[in-house]
Every structure is written in C-alpha cells, then in structure tokens.
Specification:
The protein is of the alpha/beta class and about 290 residues long. It has one domain: Alpha/Beta hydrolase fold, catalytic domain (Rossmann fold). The protein has 8 helices and 9 strands. The chain has helices at about 90-100, 115-125, 165-170, 180-190, 195-210, 210-215, 260-265, 265-290, and strands at about 5, 15-25, 25-35, 40-45, 65-70, 110-115, 130-135, 225-230, 250-255. Strands 1-2-3-5-4-6-7-8-9 form a 9-stranded mixed sheet, sandwiched between helices. β2 (about 15-25) and β3 form a beta hairpin. α1 (about 90-100) crosses α2. The radius of gyration is 18 Å and the shape is globular.
Length: about 290
C-alpha cells in the first residue's frame, strides 16, 4: 500500500511499517520503512537494475534492532523516471540526503549494494552529518576490479529482451547455480531503458573520477565491506583495496556471489548486525559518560 508521506501506515505504536512517495524537485522518490520507530536508522541503497525489493529477504533480519529505510533511486522501481533528470551518482546521493531530511533522520548507518555503494559513498562525501557509518556489499572499489565484459549496446527498440535474455543478463549477479526467480525477471522487464543505461553510465563516471577507497580514506567513517567471494562481476580480491581506509573491516562470504543479500540473507546479516552493534556501543559510550557527570 502506498500512502502520503505525512500519513504512514503503522502496524504498531512502536513499529514502523510504511510506504510513501516523497516529491522532490526533479521527481518523486518511493520510500519504504520497517522496524522500530525510535531505533538506530539503517538506510539501504540498492544497485543498478534493482529496487527496494532486492532487500526484501534481508529486512526481516534487521528490524528487531533498527529502523530500516529503503528507497528506490530516481529511475528505479516505483520512483519517478523523468527523461530530463540527471542520473549521475552525486545527484542520486543528493536526493537520498533530501529524503532523510524530509523523514527527520539526523544520522544513519548507510548500506549500499553494488553500485548502491557508490551512491552511499557520495552521500558520505556530501553529508558527513548524516552518515555515521558505511557498509558496502559487493561494491567494486574501482573499474580495475570489473570482471564482466561490456555487453553490446541494446537499442531502445529491442527493449525489453526475452525472459531468457533477461536471465542471461542477470546471471553474473549470482553464483552459477542460483535459480533466478521470475519476480526478478519481471522487475528487469519493467526497467526504464533510458534511466537504466544513464544510471550505469553515471556510476562508471564516478568510479573513473576516483576510486571508492580513495574517496573514503579521509572521511574518518567506520567502514565494513562485505563481499561474496564468488562474485562474477567484480574481482573479489579487490575487496582488500578498502583496507587502505583506516579501521576498515572486510568480511568475505565464501560460496556466495555478487548478490549475497538474496543468495544468503542470514550470512549477510550476521556481520552487518555485529558491525552496527559495535558501532552503536562505541557511539553510546560518550553519551553515557556525559550523563554520569
């Protein structure tokens, strides 16, 4: 159910379960919230050719301890897909920051999957006041780590491809034995060709300008990198590049591919929750000390 931003549907007084559409200057943004209203905020940012639904299996594992906010980036899912808008990564990050402001969020741990990791990094660069920690899941650190060869251009008149072509397109996003569900195929079919291609070009341009570890090195943010060790899109050993960021931790998940949030949500949630628990305890310590003075 979609409701207005000012009238969320709430299942319980202590538990948020709301969908809303927030109008921004350059297009409406779809937002989904789950979990405890007064709990620490986890913001989840999806990757290319994806949407908030990519987090569906992970969210129930996070809501016992967090207020979980998901958005569809402009051009994706249920958000607007204006032809004249910019889909550059910094502009996507700016919209994410505007959404958090509209929701009254002061700080969040930001989690980005795949190219969503670039948007999360750009948000941290733009709004260090909002981002308290970062979790990057199978986010390639630089174009040097890219494994998948560039596919031949698909003309707009040829879109959408057949189910089989869509499954082939999505296949490298998972381990070879992963059965791609029809729901994912249907979501891919609904992609807007212009928004999809320009958003991917925007991510590439962002990585060409500067690698993610270089961008993060001077920000001083707690960083966890989770990587499916059998990623077929990004060289998994490149996850070590993030260790150039002071205090960064890298968690490898053997047997999982580019999309561990769907392949094995429980194994993905474990290091994420351990990281947020440690970060929350460290963050709370100074407040507790101040309270005792």
């Amino acid at each position: 159910m979609t409701v207005s931003a000012g009238q969320p549907h709430v299942k319980d007084a202590a538990e948020a379960a709301a969908e809303s559409v927030l109008p921004l200057d350059d297009g409406d943004i779809y937002v989904c919230q789950d979990g405890l209203c007064d709990a620490p905020v986890l913001l989840l940012i999806h990757g290319s050719a994806s949407s908030t639904s990519s987090w569906d299996l992970l969210v129930p594992l996070l809501t016992q301890s967090h207020r979980v906010i998901r958005i569809d980036l402009l051009g994706h899912g249920r958000s607007a897909k204006p032809a004249g808008a910019s889909y550059e990564t910094p502009d996507q990050a700016r919209r994410v920051g505007a959404v958090l402001d509209r929701l009254g969020v002061k700080q969040a741990t930001v989690v980005g999957h795949s190219s969503g990791g670039a948007a999360a990094t750009a948000l941290a660069e733009q709004r260090p006041d909002l981002v308290s920690a970062l979790v990057l899941i199978n986010a390639g650190p630089s174009l040097d780590a890219f494994l998948e060869p560039q596919a031949g251009a698909v003309e707009p008149s040829q879109w959408p491809p057949s189910d089989e072509q869509l499954r082939q397109f999505a296949s490298t996003g998972f381990t070879a034995d992963y059965q791609i569900p029809q729901e994912l195929v249907d979501e891919l079919r609904a992609l807007d060709y212009h928004a999809f291609t320009t958003a991917m070009q925007g991510t590439r341009a962002y990585l060409e300008q500067r690698a993610l570890p270089d961008r993060l090195e001077g920000l001083g943010l707690p960083l966890l990198v989770i990587f499916g060790a059998d990623d077929r899109r990004w060289r998994s050993s490149s996850a070590a590049d993030y260790l150039a960021v002071p205090g960064a931790k890298v968690e490898m998940l053997p047997g999982l591919g580019h999309t561990p949030i769907l392949e094995d949500p429980s194994r993905t949630a474990a290091p994420l929750l351990a990281f947020t628990a440690i970060h929350a305890a460290i963050h709370a310590a100074p407040h507790a000390a101040q309270g005792g003075e």
